[in-house]
């Protein structure tokens, strides 16, 4: 039987955090603006395909937005969401590459071969080249397409780069984790390189500029140079708020009363990102795009709780299939929405943006087969019922198998040792090892996570490999009903069997030494030629064993320290 324990906090105290008081209407520090970007707009007209701005944040926790009761100030996101449609039954994937691949292709991971882990910098792997991407479909519909920010969909060949996958321009990083100022990234001891690219070239001249500032300013420049009479798609994939926890000191100062240092830095990064969104919105208005625009905001996965993030009151964290890993912050803001200022409980998944946005752009989906996403614009704009009734969170055959799972426990039709999760209607099923399962309150203590007494823990039976929850009635996954409802378990296992029959082989090749930045002038970038074929299913190394190898890179950190010190001195940031 499950045993719960909560000490040190009361539910009321944890949910009663107030807002800090500072004036969000002051001119932004991200760009020089003197007018309020939120002034009321003219009545909308939908006579032309709309301009589409898709904003994706990295590792922002479910709790870490003002309108979810956070102690972090996000006035811009709160305002945009309040005036648009909040998506409170919105799902993403638990880690970076899977969410991005499903957004760009409209397909589940099992249908692109990316169902295991992320694409690592030294792997000869990328988003399958036979996939027609979202920006490519928008180009077909007459859109100018631009990407700013984090790619993380592979780059071992030039054919994998954003500018070869549908984007007219690109400014950002190719890997998954870079310094916010120096853009250095280390993928192990001594394996360090620079990662900021302009198009297909290394953007050495941009080093020293804080990425959140840089990306927001680039969006403004794109809008200033384009005509609002021509449709435009801008994919803004902020690096924020992924580690390393770095922010300009003026933002950290606002949260000086926070005792937990990681939470303080993290909060500063979220607020800085919020101001960047404010300036993007201001630019849409200034240059004449706003009245015919659709702004979509989404997180990419749950927050990393030991790096300042919070998914409270949801269970779990980034990298898990509990709700804290897969339920995202999402909203749509647009003058074109018919029923504004409301909260939608329509079931929406990140794969749905592909058909939804292509349809909004009046593009052609008739020649695209096998999409897992649905057009959910009627559900968002008009409040109609969502066409989606189920979500395959994932099936990962390579993840460490649960010790006590078996085919017998899966009624002879499914090996419950395999990590998998599915949502059908109000029911959610998990098998195998779903990942870290605690409920973690916001990190308000100075010594968190050094002390564990402020966690709420669930102790499951030692031989557990199947969980069933009624997510509608129990969104915090506190009451496992797998033993009471074996009929539902069997039904959802049959759905997993169905999906597994459609899965393609896992694409997870071994790392290639040719990828070392030293062979590429000190920067991360393509290393394989056109003659190198696509590589499939390399080493079956477990995630845990690989993580043990990824130790801190002392050489990279030393080089990064001196470069960062020099650039900050030059820019008066210290």
From TrEMBL:
InterPro entries documented for this protein: Alkaline_phosphatase_core_sf, ARSB, Sulfatase_CS, Sulfatase_N
Example GO molecular function: sulfuric ester hydrolase activity
Cofactor(s) needed: Ca(2+)
SUPFAM superfamilies: Alkaline phosphatase-like (SSF53649)
Residue span(s) of domain Sulfatase N-terminal: 50-361
Keywords: Calcium, Glycoprotein, Hydrolase, Metal-binding
Annotated family: Belongs to the sulfatase family.
Name of protein: ARSI Arylsulfatase
């Amino acid at each position: 039987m499950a045993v719960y324990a909560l000490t040190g906090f009361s539910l009321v105290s944890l949910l009663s955090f107030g807002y800090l008081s500072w004036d969000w209407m002051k001119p932004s520090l991200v760009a020089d603006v003197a007018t309020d970007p939120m002034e009321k707009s003219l009545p909308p007209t939908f006579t032309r395909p709309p301009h589409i701005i898709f904003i994706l944040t990295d590792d922002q926790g479910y709790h870490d937005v003002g309108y979810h009761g956070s102690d972090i100030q996000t006035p811009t996101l709160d305002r945009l969401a309040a005036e648009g449609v909040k998506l409170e039954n919105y799902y993403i994937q638990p880690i970076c590459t899977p969410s991005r691949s499903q957004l760009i292709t409209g397909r589940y991971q099992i249908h692109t071969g990316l169902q295991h882990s992320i694409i690592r910098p030294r792997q000869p792997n990328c988003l399958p080249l036979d996939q027609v991407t979202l920006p490519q479909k928008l180009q077909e519909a007459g859109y100018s397409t631009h990407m700013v920010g984090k790619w993380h969909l592979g780059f071992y060949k030039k054919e994998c780069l954003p500018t070869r996958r549908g984007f007219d321009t690109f400014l950002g990083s190719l890997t998954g984790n870079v310094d916010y100022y120096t853009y250095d990234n280390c993928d192990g001891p001594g394996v360090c390189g620079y990662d900021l690219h302009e198009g297909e070239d290394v953007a050495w001249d941009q080093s020293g500029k804080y990425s959140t500032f840089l990306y927001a300013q680039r969006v403004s420049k794109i809008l200033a140079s384009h005509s609002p009479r021509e449709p435009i798609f801008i994919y803004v994939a902020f690096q924020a708020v992924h580690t390393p926890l770095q922010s300009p000191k003026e933002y950290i100062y606002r949260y000086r009363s926070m005792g937990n240092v990681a939470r303080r830095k993290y909060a500063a990064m979220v607020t800085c990102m919020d101001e960047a969104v404010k300036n993007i919105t201001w630019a849409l208005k200034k240059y004449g795009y706003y009245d015919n625009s659709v702004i979509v905001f989404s997180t990419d996965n749950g927050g990393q709780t030991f790096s300042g993030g919070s998914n409270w009151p949801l269970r779990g964290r980034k990298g898990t299939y509990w709700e804290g890993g897969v339920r995202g912050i999402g909203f749509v803001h647009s003058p074109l929405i018919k029923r504004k200022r409301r909260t939608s409980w329509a079931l929406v998944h990140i794969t749905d943006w592909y058909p939804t946005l292509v349809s909004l752009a009046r593009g052609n989906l008739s020649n695209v087969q096998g999409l897992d996403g649905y057009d959910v614009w009627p559900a968002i704009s008009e409040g109609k019922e969502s066409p989606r009734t189920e979500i395959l969170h994932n099936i990962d055959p390579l993840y460490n198998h649960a010790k006590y799972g078996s085919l017998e426990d899966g009624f002879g039709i499914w090996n419950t040792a395999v990590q998998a999760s599915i949502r059908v209607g109000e029911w959610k099923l998990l098998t195998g090892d779903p990942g870290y399962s605690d409920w973690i309150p916001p990190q308000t203590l100075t010594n968190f996570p050094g002390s564990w007494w402020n966690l709420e823990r669930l102790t499951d039976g030692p031989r557990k490999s199947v969980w069933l929850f009624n997510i509608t009635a129990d969104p915090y996954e506190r009451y496992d009903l797998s033993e009471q409802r074996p009929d539902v378990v069997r039904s959802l296992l049959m759905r997993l069997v169905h999906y597994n029959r459609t899965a393609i082989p896992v694409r997870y090749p071994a790392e290639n030494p040719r990828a070392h930045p030293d062979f590429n002038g000190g920067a991360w970038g393509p290393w394989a030629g056109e003659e190198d074929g696509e590589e499939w299913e390399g080493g079956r190394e477990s995630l845990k064993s690989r993580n043990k190898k990824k130790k801190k890179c002392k050489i990279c950190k030393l080089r990064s320290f001196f470069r960062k010190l020099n650039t900050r001195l030059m820019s008066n940031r210290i």
